[in-house]
Each structure stands twice: as structure tokens, then as C-alpha cells.
Amino acid sequence: MPTRHRLLAVVVALLWGLNFLAIDASLAHYPPMFLVALRFAVLAVPTVLLVPWPGVPVRWLVGYGLGFGVLQFAFLYWGMAAGMPAGLASLVLQMSGPFTVVLGAVFLRERVSGRQVVGILVAVAGLTAVGWQRAENAALLPFLLTLAGAFGWAIGNVSNRLAKPRSPLHLVLWMSVVPPLPMLAVSWVVEGRDAIWTSLTTYDDAAAWWAVVGLAYTVLLGTVAGSGLWTWLMARHPAGVVAPFSMLVPVVGMSSAWLVLGEEVTPGELAGALLVVGGVLWGSRPARTARPGPAGTAVPGTTAPGTAGRGPAEPVSPAGAAAAPGHRDPDGRLLPVAER
Which intervals carry biased composition (Basic and acidic residues) (predicted)? Predict the structure, then answer.
């Protein structure tokens, strides 16, 4: 992955980390299931009227909407409403990274390097430590609900990877058409008509207006900007390379929750968070660049030019070394002769 693409992934982590403060503010006023429906309905209406169809198979659009939109946010908002602190929620949700790598390897046949495996195992160990601390010091249910949201995010990652949209932003916007109706139905049954109506008609205190500000941030920066950049990256790189950057979100989420909301973490939770961050940084380090060997071959243990971050180097013959970069697909794989 080029450096500028890695920087874009870090920008997404910044936007999504602050997004947990916005969600916390919105949940102070809106019921959680209705908030999910409202969040995406605000995007869905102008999308249907103004945004061109993204040109992707409907099944992957629906899969993206159900995974990323419905499952992730229904469980995340439920977990936070049940007592999951915003900062820790930003950490636990990043289990989507390991989930995505596993799903990408199983369903997309994407290669997983040894460095990625080590980084993911370290991150999983960190998340396990956090879960253990939550079980000892607080209710475990909010932690498990947030973890279920992470799995939904991973399903969405794989679906948007398979969609291969020409316009990632159009896919993100059209994905918002999927969640509103099913989430409104769930809210109507679980939370009730009165709770929905009250949240829409009472704006007589500061908390209600902060909830609106939080909703606006979530829609415009968390979804349009953050998810648009994320989908753009997922369309250009293997899911297992991009997804681990999501584990940088807790750096922003936990720090901002500590500064703004006064949230504190136990020493065990902090140690787990450090393992998560260390794991993603190690797993996302680019592979070494190949050094020319005798007769133009690559030195063993290095990566062929143009393949850094894409897995082990592919064999390059002396005769084809110069031509190889021009005969690769957007993901860096060598094309069969008939497709070149």
C-alpha cells in the first residue's frame, strides 16, 4: 500500500475515533435502534433522488448495507446504550480487523503474510485482555454486543471488497438505503412508538441539541467522508491489508473519551489497548523492497518491485522482469497471458 494511501487510512481512523463521542451524545436523546434508522435515513432520501447508481451487483450492495449498516450499528448502539463506554467501544469494535482478515482469506482467497498473522494475534490477545477486564469489573453483555457489531463490520468489509465499485462514494451512499426500514421496524417493536415520537418532538434542553450535532457528525464525517475513503481503499487493496488500520481508531477514541467525557480505563484495559495498537502497527509495516540478485533475480526473503504490502513476492524471470509491472491487475497479481 503506498504511503499516501496509508495516510488516508489514518485520516479515516481519526474521523471514526471521534465518531464515538458523537454517538455517545446522540444516544443521550435518541433510542439506539431508532438512531440507527435515523442515521441512515438522513442519507438515504437524498441518495435515491440525486446520486447515480454505483453500478455494483445488488447482492453485494445489500450485503454491505446489512453488515456495515444494520449489524454493526445495531449491536454497537445497543452495547453503548447498555453501558459500554465510548472509548472502550472504539477499541472492541476493531476486532473487525481480525474478523475481516479471516473472512477475506476464506471467501476471497486473499494471501495473509506471516507479519499480518503475528500482528493480528497480538491484537487479538489485547482485545482478549480487555474482555477479561470487562468481565471482572463491569457487565460483560455490552462488551459482547460490541463484539457482535465488529463481526457485522467485517461482513460489510468483505461485501464492499467484492462489489468493486467504480465510485466508492456512490456505494457508501447507496448502502445507506438498506438499513432504515429494517431498523425502523425493529425500533417500533422493541422501543415503541412513544419513545420514537418523543425523541423527534422534544428539543428543549442542551443535550437534545448536542444529540443533533452528534448525528450530523456521524452522517457527514463518520459515514460520507470516513466510509467513502475506506471503501475507496478497500476497492484498491486486499481487505486484509486495509482492515487492520481500523485498529488505530481506539487511539483516538479512547484518548478523546478520556479528555472530553472523563472516562478512565483499568491498567489491564490499557495494557490490552497497547497490544492492539502494537499489533496493527506491526502487521501493517510494508515488506522490504527487493534487491537485484544475480541475473536480475530477486534476493530471497525480499519483495519484488510493485508488490510491497501485497504478500510474498511472485517469481519473476529475468526475461520478464521488466515487463511484469505492466501485466498486473489493480491488486498487483500477475494476469494470465490471455488477459494481458
Answer: 326-340
**Comparison of pLDDT for 238 and 22, the residue scoring more:** 22
- CA torsion sign, 83 to 245 to 172 to 226? positive
Q: What is the pLDDT of residues 146-165, one digit of tens each?
A: 999 999 989 998 998 888 88
| Residues comprising the chain, all counted | 340
- What pLDDT is recorded for position 210? 94
Q: Is the dihedral of CA 66, 217, 244, 262 positive or negative?
A: negative
DSSP state of 223: I
Residue of 238, 293, 231, 292 lying closest to 113 (CA atoms): 238
Taking alpha carbons only, the member of 123, 77, 122, 70 closest to residue 96 is 123
Is 90 exceeded by the pLDDT of residue 338? no
194: Cβ–Cβ under 8 A, 6 or more apart, which residues? none
Q: How far apart are CA 278 and CA 120, in angstroms?
A: 10
pTM as predicted: 0.75
In tens, the pLDDT along 303-330 reads 433 333 333 333 333 333 333 344 444 4
Which conformational region is residue 301 in: left (phi greater than 0), alpha (psi within -120 to 50 degrees), or beta?
left
Eight-state DSSP code of residue 258: I
Query: What 3-state class would DSSP assign to 80?
Result: helix
pLDDT in tens, 162-172: 888 888 888 88
Which residues are within 8 A (CB) of 326 and not within 5 positions of it... i.e. 6 or more apart? none
CA angle 150, 32, 189 (to 5 degrees): 110
Phi, psi angles (nearest 5°) of residue 111: -75, 140
| Residue 23 in grid coordinates | 454517538
Give residue-wise pLDDT tens across range 114-145.
877 888 788 788 878 877 777 666 678 898 99
Q: Mind spelling out the 3-state secondary structure of 282-335?
A: HHCCCCCECCECHHHCECCCCECCCCCCCCCCCCCCCCCCCCHHHHECCCCCEC
Question: Any idea where the domains of the chain sit in the sequence?
Answer: 3-283, 292-340
- Asked if pLDDT for residue 302 goes beyond 70, the answer is no
